[in-house]
Amino acid sequence: MKLCYKCGSKIERVDWQCSYCGESPEMINGFLSFASNNAEDNAGFRSEYFAELANLEARNFWFRARSQLIMWALRRYFPNANSLLEIGCGTGFVLSGIADALPHLKLSGSEIQSAGLEFAAERAHTSRLFQMDARLIPFEEEFDVIGAFDVLEHIHEDEEVLSRMHQAVCKGGGVILTVPQHPFLWSRQDEYACHVRRYTLPELRTKVERAGFVVEKALSFVSLLLPLLMLARFRKRKPLAEFDPLEELKITGVANTLLEKALTVERALIRLGVTFPAGGSLLLVAKKLS
What we know:
The protein is of the alpha/beta class and 290 residues long. The protein has nine helices and eleven strands.
């Protein structure tokens, strides 16, 4: 069910005009916009990164490995899903992977900055895309699955986002979340990425349950590479004459291949039921039972 982005009333019309208050969302660069005041820029992400991300994601070991883990979780925990919304879809890298692997899914993607949607439209051309503030999701029981992949850490009001996700997902459906883990890994990398927090598992679980979900699975990943990640993060706590926030995404060649192979082994162990006690990131799956 669609909701008016202004007054919250249910909308039956195809054109999104609210019969109660008369409001209609704007169109920005060809995309429906539910939060036009934030479409150009906001504190959650630097819009100038989109172009470089679009060039680096498909080759980078971390993005590739995370995408495969998300696909595993989607198949395992939501095998009967027919629709999915990705919040904060960025350049559309994950959406395009889901479209290739699960072509039967009806896909939607949102991004608060309209600049990201232009890249996403090139990759995820079969997905419905719109500009949206995750704190004001204009849907109720609309999607079987909602994904937010390294998004919540950018938003101060993460519990409000989780509450809106609970509203927008269908009964029996649920959410897949990934977030950076361990506050002790905080560094300049997080600051440049516009993070407001790194999570602990108890914190994320508590917030998800408080929103009304039942947690099905929570696990650490990027665990085999945690010693390397710790060294990199501790180094980035020191002042550097030149700091490249995208340095880790520019790893190529043999190093990139070896790191991806390590995460492939890790993912195989996860599929076998191995639970790692720590890791650079968390994946959490939760369902809406009522």
